[in-house]
Amino acid sequence: MVSTEICEMLNIRYPIIQGGMARIATAELAAAVSEAGGLGIIGAGDAPAEIVEGEIIKARKLTDKPFGVNIMLLSPFVEEIIDIVCEHRVSVVTTGAGNPAKFIKKLKGVGVKIIPVIPSVALAKRMENLEVDAVIVEGTEAGGHIGELTTMALVPQVVDAVNIPVIAAGGIADGRGLLAALSLGAKGVQIGTRFICAEECVVHKNYKNMILGAKDRDAVVMARITGHPVRALKNKLTRQFSKLEKEGATAEEIEKLGQGKLKLAVVNGDVENGSVMAGQVAGMVTKIQSCKEIIEEIISGAGSQLDLVGKFYTGV
User: Fold this and answer.
1) Whole-number Å distance between alpha carbons of 7 and 303
2) d(CA 15, CA 167)
3) Which among 167, 215, 238, 249 is placed 20 to 30 Å from 84, CA to CA?
4) CA–CA gap between residue 191 and residue 20 (Å, rounded)
5) Is residue 279's pLDDT more than 60?
């Protein structure tokens, strides 16, 4: 049994949070992760509030366990989504792409826990000053939008800088990663890429198959020129991005190329022209499993690794 203060805070069995991946993290996936003892997250992305509300209602029918919603603060529907989350008393909100300051009082007023995703020590300190409940520290190994610092380097620096719980994200897919994160001072982990290959994840099978076939160097970074780089698996689209950047294209031209490409891969299954967002751990994901099997394997793997560490130190 691996348990930390995050488990008590969020009323979950294991310190594992599922990443709030836009268009990927639906009610089905979130509910299955929560049922398995982690914290499932519905990814709001840029979806209208009524869509997000529908996912919340669906998740409540699938589980009576706590789950959360990831809110992209740059969404044009953010105000309405905050209202929906408060109305339905969702347990947890994770946030990205912006500052949640203006919504904190309202969310806390109805008992919603607030956990921003941050890529630096400075932002972690700022969030602590806003009295959020914890922070998710995401390293550049992650899929989707990324920062520059690695998980291994960033997590301990944030742990040393703040007095609120830290959750590690980016480059974590198994029990070894969980144990490493805890060793760095994190109280839990957020995992995205591995859960894409969960049985309960409703993404197109082509998307899952591309992750299953990925090698260690297949997750590359696109669109650095825009200031919002994205990590995805190599395909025709990533080559187009690379070509445009080498030719000196503007940020606007780069952003235009990326419009609608995540949906193209997730929904339509076009994994050559769509954006197959995935982290550097894609090469570690080798099979389709249920969320229960994934979480149990992570927890047992952490226990086995801890036993090995114990034998190393005792010389047994």
Assistant:
1) 17
2) 9
3) 167
4) 9
5) yes
